[in-house]
Amino acid sequence: MGPRTIRVGVLGCAEIARRRMLPAFAACPDTEVVAVASRDTARAAEFAAPYGARPVRGYAGLLAEDSVDAVYVPLPLSMHAEWTEAALRSGKHVLAEKPLTTDPVRSAQLYALAQGAGLALMENVMFVHHARHAEVARLVAEGAVGELRSFQAVFCVPRRAAEDIRYRPELDGGALWDTGVYPLRAALRFLGPGLEVVGASLTKGPGFAVDTAGAVLLCSPAGVSAQLAFGLDHAYGNAYELRGSQGRITLDMAFTPPAAGAPAALLHGPSGAREVPLPQEDQAVATVSAFAAAVRAGHAPFEESLGQAQLLDAVRRHAAHG
């Protein structure tokens, strides 16, 4: 594809589309939103109007449009595989909400389909595109904390309304798929592939039909441990820490930093603690820019996302069977 603006269609009217991703597509000079599809035409029109986009009734109708180059899929998790495959078979590049599917074999099939068709398929894990994490990784690689010994991360959010899709098992709701992705992906990002699930627990709060809390213990091939916690019925938590032989780095607002005013990292060493300024940017726009680059290349790197899918599955199976 040449330098022409990438024309994006949106499948569904999820809150994350309205609040974060539609503004990000509009802010990125490489993309424009041209169509929004919904089973409810009035709702599609409401979402499309601020961007001068066309409302489309039904997801299949949008995929049939030649004026759409790529689609964003913010549908419930249970619908990701079906509509991601349909979009790829329609010749569209795809940015799908995380996680791509609940099955690593199915995810691998979709990545293979995209690769064979010369299409970009990218999972929307936004924090990995924020430059602050690359800066933290650089500090660790340069020995700021000595030899790395452990990683800890938490992503927990307060209870939402009872009808929220995150609490509906038929839509593949649950803490593992919603908030657990973040600390698990961060562990992969900092500790690398080959992580072993040493222990895992998924629990359902009273009255819930899905897991609302989880804890995971991992170990890397180099012997570095990772202790992760996540949940959907908790006081808010959003941070990680890398601890080494000579110090530690902590980062608050790790996974959902504001576009401006995100906190600095705190580096604790033998001589005390100091703040380390980190880059400031809108990670949603950074993600859209990365997707646009992948569309132009006709391929999106997927190895880490596939590793994430395998790790999520290992956690689920370990929690269920030990």
TrEMBL record:
<dbReference type="InterPro" id="IPR036291">
    <property type="entry name" value="NAD(P)-bd_dom_sf"/>
</dbReference>
<dbReference type="Pfam" id="PF01408">
    <property type="entry name" value="GFO_IDH_MocA"/>
</dbReference>
<feature type="domain" description="GFO/IDH/MocA-like oxidoreductase">
    <location>
        <begin position="134"/>
        <end position="249"/>
    </location>
</feature>
<comment type="similarity">
    <text>Belongs to the Gfo/Idh/MocA family.</text>
</comment>
<dbReference type="InterPro" id="IPR000683">
    <property type="entry name" value="Gfo/Idh/MocA-like_OxRdtase_N"/>
</dbReference>
<dbReference type="GO" id="GO:0016491">
    <property type="term" value="F:oxidoreductase activity"/>
</dbReference>
<dbReference type="Pfam" id="PF22725">
    <property type="entry name" value="GFO_IDH_MocA_C3"/>
</dbReference>
<feature type="domain" description="Gfo/Idh/MocA-like oxidoreductase N-terminal">
    <location>
        <begin position="6"/>
        <end position="123"/>
    </location>
</feature>
<dbReference type="InterPro" id="IPR055170">
    <property type="entry name" value="GFO_IDH_MocA-like_dom"/>
</dbReference>
<dbReference type="GO" id="GO:0000166">
    <property type="term" value="F:nucleotide binding"/>
</dbReference>
<keyword id="KW-0560">Oxidoreductase</keyword>
<protein>
    <submittedName>
        <fullName>Oxidoreductase-like protein</fullName>
    </submittedName>
</protein>
<dbReference type="InterPro" id="IPR050984">
    <property type="entry name" value="Gfo/Idh/MocA_domain"/>
</dbReference>
